[in-house]
From TrEMBL:
Zn(2+) binds at residues 192, 261, 275. NAD(+) 2 binds at residues 95, 136-137, 145, 177. Residues 186-368 form the Fe-containing alcohol dehydrogenase-like C-terminal domain. It comes from Bifidobacterium catenulatum PV20-2. Keywords: Metal-binding, Nucleotide-binding, Oxidoreductase, Zinc. The keyword Zinc applies. One of its GO terms (molecular function) is metal ion binding. InterPro entries: ADH_Fe/GldA, ADH_Fe_C, ADH_Fe_CS, Alcohol_dehydrogenase_Fe. Pfam families: ADH_Fe_C (PF25137), Fe-ADH (PF00465). This is Methanol dehydrogenase. Residues 8-175 form the Alcohol dehydrogenase iron-type/glycerol dehydrogenase GldA domain.
Amino acid sequence: MLWDYAQPVTIRFGKGRAMEIKDIAEAMGLHDGIMVTPKFFVDSGEAQRLIDASDGAVSTVFTDFSPNPDVTEVDACAEIIRKNHCEFVVAMGGGSAMDVSKAAASICLTDDSIADYHGTGKAMPQKHLPIIALPTTAGTGSEVTCVSVLTNRKLGKKAPIVSDGFFPSVAIVDPELTYSVPPKITASTGMDVLSQAIEGFWSKGHQPICDSCAAHAAKLVFKYLPIAVAEPHNEEAREKMCEASVIAGLAFTLPKTTSSHACSFPLTNIHGIPHGEACGLTLDYFARINKDAQHGRVQEFARGIGFKDVDAMADAIHDLKVRIGMRTGLKDLNLTEEQIADLVRISRHPNLYNNPVEITDDMLDTMYHYLASTD
Ligand SMILES: NC(=O)c1ccc[n+]([C@@H]2O[C@H](COP(=O)([O-])OP(=O)(O)OC[C@H]3O[C@@H](n4cnc5c(N)ncnc54)[C@H](O)[C@@H]3O)[C@@H](O)[C@H]2O)c1
Ligand SMILES: [Fe+2]
């Protein structure tokens, strides 16, 4: 087996480390930073606290983007970067803030729109501004990935763009930033961690270093996610979920995600199901499909993280969703045959081809009919 491993992001992990933006900017000789963050952190005063601590290194703030950020929001951010001659980007937020930052940090050095690169196969320019990423959800792992997931609402399209230029220079993973995440978002983002870990493991692009990261992250999620949801101020659970999140990011950024992420895109785009909840919805289903793939290594994974076999792990994923209030079916949506056909069609996304078992349209059709009849 041939494999490569490279990970260019420096990770600074631990409570209180969000205050280190100033040191990092100084060490890298950077000035005039822009902070890209949800309005929530401006309203809570957290953005200002970190800007003050940056001692002048960060001077501009951009908040004008939504969850599942649109290509037009990236273009608007790039325009502000150009206008203010910003030299680096501080991406503080969940996957949405980080994905806007990554795309804007590249596109701002061109006259292009990010739409020219979104789902078109056109390679991103390699020049980009340095990014310091501070994840505030646990989470997408976007702080260590070369992926920016964007939506083009005009074309009804959600898709990742992959570019080596999207790797942040530094990821500051400070669990304190996640204390304010409400239970529903903790639950959904936690299911994203689990999906990314498990899919990174069984992806056709799997490799040994990412395998170990996947197992470590998945084990942490089963143990700590229910606690983080039930007790938002449990510091140990928050810290362990941040650890799981960044390590799951390392587990999937090279192998890439597979079937559950492919299916999540139409579930989010058409039916508004949050990203992590959408990924988790099909994770146990695909675990059962993939259980004997890759000469038993998926079974080995399940046993390695403490289950009798893959079926027991799939049961545990289902139980976890019930316990943390995530959906296990789509019955409430009263899906029509036409809507199911759309889900099948749009799930045929490049990530689907990373799945270790070939997923046919018939298999997707059976799965969506099953989910459509399940609470
Ligand atoms: N780039 C990648 O590698 C990658 C991987 C997985 C998912 N994604 C993408 O990331 C996006 C989802 O990111 P997400 O799940 O982190 O959600 P998000 O960034 O969309 O945030 C969800 C909501 O939580 C709020 N929020 C974030 N942090 C908070 C905090 N500490 N306290 C209170 N509220 C907070 C946000 O303001 C927002 O309203 C999706 O678009 C998804 O496709 C990207
Ligand atoms: Fe994800």
